[in-house]
């Protein structure tokens, strides 16, 4: 059953038939009459959580990303393990990595108190990601709302469709294309690595692999840069797999354009960051990176546009899916 569903998703994406299905039913101010305080409740609780722990901003943004790339933006990533269905939380890219579930749980609880069975978990994820970015100094955008929640998760889809931290540029481009996103979206959304952290397990290959694509810029001329020495001190060849390093060493808690400055200098933490430059054969990506590195307003405007586009991937609307009472379980 799971394989058949994945096959259907791949075919649908291939023919670009469902990538943005239901988007015409998503609207601004969807909850204005149904639940007027919905966006205020989401924002307030995201703000409280991020003030207590700034890392949660990146976590909430990542939750939305990992949700949308598997079967669409349908909150399938929030479902827990139940008999006959393995949670996406246990998939390789998510296990011991995704965080922020408790924040979503609290928001959902409060929304159920305010407006029972009205605000979907998928919409909560989209709003929380937007608010998390803005609260860390990033742009704000109007989130289209009206998504429904999935009735199942896809463990195998999470293992296949979420980009790996050591992906080549070719793989990244293909991965985003499957979701209806282009190269410009890929570069723009990679800018989310301006906040957050990564485990040693995710960037070890970037440090010790001799492949030139992982060591663009200063590394091209010098075998051991000070940046690589710092990374080696954090992440040895073996062990300390769960030791963290910031994705942006300069401004790790602020959403800004410094990520693009970093990769131009060969200081992207992940291999998938550095290949944007080192694998760019025609120079178009490098040109876009330079534009964002020199113009934060341009990056912010583009990021907002790409986030709206990503938030519309394979959404469920109308009679599709449901509005869960608890984001961790489908309704009985």
TrEMBL record:
Residues 25-331 form the Plant heme peroxidase family profile domain. Disulfide bonds join 35-115, 68-73, 121-327, 200-235. Binds 2 calcium ions per subunit. Binds 1 heme b (iron(II)-protoporphyrin IX) group per subunit. It catalyses: 2 a phenolic donor + H2O2 = 2 a phenolic radical donor + 2 H2O. The keyword Translocase does not apply. Substrate binds at residue 163. Gene3D superfamilies: 1.10.520.10, Peroxidase, domain 2. Keywords: Calcium, Disulfide bond, Glycoprotein, Heme, Hydrogen peroxide, Iron, Metal-binding, Oxidoreductase, Peroxidase, Secreted, Signal. The active site is at 66 (proton acceptor). One of its GO terms (molecular function) is peroxidase activity. It is found in: Secreted. Heme b binds at residue 193. It is an enzyme of class 1 (oxidoreductase). GO terms for biological process: hydrogen peroxide catabolic process; response to oxidative stress. The record marks 62 as: Transition state stabilizer. Its cofactor is Ca(2+); heme b. Ca(2+) 2 binds at residues 194, 248, 251, 256. Its main location: secreted. Pfam families: peroxidase. Removal of H(2)O(2), oxidation of toxic reductants, biosynthesis and degradation of lignin, suberization, auxin catabolism, response to environmental stresses such as wounding, pathogen attack and oxidative stress. These functions might be dependent on each isozyme/isoform in each plant tissue. This is Peroxidase. It comes from Glycine max (Soybean).
């Amino acid at each position: 059953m799971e394989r058949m569903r994945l096959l259907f998703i791949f075919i649908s994406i291939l023919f670009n038939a469902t990538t943005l299905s239901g988007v015409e039913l998503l609207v601004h101010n969807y909850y204005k009459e149904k639940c007027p305080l919905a966006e205020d409740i989401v924002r307030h609780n995201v703000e409280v959580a991020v003030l207590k722990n700034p890392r949660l901003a990146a976590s909430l943004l990542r939750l939305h990303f990992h949700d949308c790339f598997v079967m669409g933006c349908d909150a399938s990533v929030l479902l827990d393990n139940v008999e006959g269905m393995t949670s996406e939380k246990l998939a390789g890219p998510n296990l011991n990595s995704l965080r922020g579930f408790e924040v979503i749980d609290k928001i959902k609880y409060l929304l159920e108190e305010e407006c029972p069975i009205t605000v979907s978990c998928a919409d909560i994820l989209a709003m929380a990601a937007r608010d998390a970015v803005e609260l860390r100094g990033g742009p704000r955008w109007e989130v289209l709302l009206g998504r429904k929640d999935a009735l199942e998760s896809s463990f195998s889809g999470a293992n296949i469709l979420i980009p790996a931290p050591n992906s080549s540029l070719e793989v990244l481009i293909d991965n985003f294309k499957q979701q209806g996103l282009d190269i410009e979206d890929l570069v723009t959304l990679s800018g989310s690595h301006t906040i957050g952290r990564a485990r040693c397990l995710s960037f070890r290959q970037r440090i010790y692999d001799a492949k030139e694509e992982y060591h663009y810029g200063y590394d091209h001329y010098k075998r051991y840069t000070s940046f690589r020495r710092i990374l080696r001190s954090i992440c040895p060849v073996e062990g300390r797999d769960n030791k963290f390093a910031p994705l942006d060493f300069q401004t790790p808690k602020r959403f800004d354009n410094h990520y693009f400055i970093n990769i131009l200098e060969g200081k992207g933490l992940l291999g998938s960051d550095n290949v944007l430059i080192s694998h760019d054969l025609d120079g178009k990506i490098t040109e876009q990176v330079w534009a964002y590195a020199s113009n934060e307003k341009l990056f912010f405007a583009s990021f907002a546009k790409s986030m709206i586009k990503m938030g519309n991937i394979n959404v469920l609307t109308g009679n599709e899916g449901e509005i869960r009472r608890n984001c961790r379980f489908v309704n009985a």
